[in-house]
Specification:
Blueprint lengths: L12 H4 L29 H15 L4 E6 L1 H12 L4 E7 L10 H18 L1 H13 L32 H4 L4 H4 L4 H6 L3 E7 L6 H13 L4 E3 L17 H13 L2
Parallel strand pairs: 1-2, 2-3, 3-4
Helix pairs in contact: 2-3, 4-5
Pfam families: Abhydrolase_1
Protein name: Alpha/beta hydrolase
Keywords: Hydrolase
């Protein structure tokens, strides 16, 4: 790729800084950061995100591109690759929350729907507490998970009061459409794109770690272990610090492979 030319989205600044020899483009997904939608739509779907990526790559004349995407971004990048494989040379999909591929999919997706409903009824703190609680769980969720007492927002340093805002892109836009999306694995397997599925070494049997492993199995590829956990690439963004130096070294290694 060419000389360095970066537009750094805040959540990827540390990782992007490890690749001064590459042209790195980051962006604010629809409904987040500088890309606020104004059409009043109640939800942003993976298909919309993938179409945004498709048009961005085309506008930049940057394809085929090497793409690193994590969490919901990995879901969107998988959808892009299934629909426009000619635009993606290598995709590193780090812990995509493809919860529909899990043995306990019904329970996990019901929890995601409940998180969205809690956000609509009670606001950010109670909904985010539920989100944090479920992503911390190890192993399959028990069938009675939703009947258990809701976690206390204060336990996670979150407010219990509702400030009336409903502009959180995770809770208000991408939940539950992102984790519920069913991927076209036939198209992904048929693509010339090299798809690498990353799993954090510290993720264990969390729901995102399990989902990433399930995606790798559906693609017929071994998952690649990355340093840290789900946020292993962060260097203090959003108050989270993973293992960004080691994470970047692993990412460089997998991108350099033929």
């Amino acid at each position: 790729m060419g000389d360095r030319d970066e537009e750094r989205h805040a959540g990827r600044a540390t990782l992007a800084g490890h690749f001064p020899d590459r042209t790195v483009v980051t962006y604010d997904p629809r409904s987040s950061g500088r890309s606020q939608r104004t059409d009043g739509a109640p939800v942003t779907t993976p298909q919309e995100h993938a179409d945004d990526l498709h048009r961005l790559i085309a506008a930049l004349g940057a394809g085929p591109a090497d793409i690193f995407a994590s969490s919901g971004g990995a879901v969107n990048a998988l959808v892009l690759t299934a629909g426009h494989p000619e635009q993606v040379r290598t995709l590193v999909a780090h812990e995509p929350p493809a919860f529909g591929e899990l043995p306990d999919a019904d329970t996990v997706l019901a929890v995601c729907a409940d998180i969205r409903q809690t956000y609509e009824r009670r606001g950010h703190g109670p909904a985010m507490a539920k989100f944090i609680d479920v992503v911390m769980q190890q192993g399959p969720l028990p069938a009675d998970y939703l009947s258990r007492p809701a976690p206390d927002p204060a336990a996670f340093g979150l407010p219990a009061d509702d400030d009336g805002s409903r502009d959180d892109p995770l809770l208000g836009q991408n939940m539950p459409s992102c984790p519920a999306y069913r991927h076209d694995f036939d198209a992904l397997r048929a693509a010339a794109t090299r798809v690498i599925v990353g799993v954090g070494e510290e993720s264990g049997a969390t729901v995102t770690g399990r989902a990433a492993t399930a995606v790798a199995e559906r693609l017929g590829v071994p998952p690649v272990t990355f340093p840290g956990g789900h946020a292993g690439f962060l260097g203090g963004e959003y108050g989270q610090t993973g293992k960004p130096d080691a994470f970047a070294a692993t990412l460089r290694e997998v991108l350099s492979q033929p």
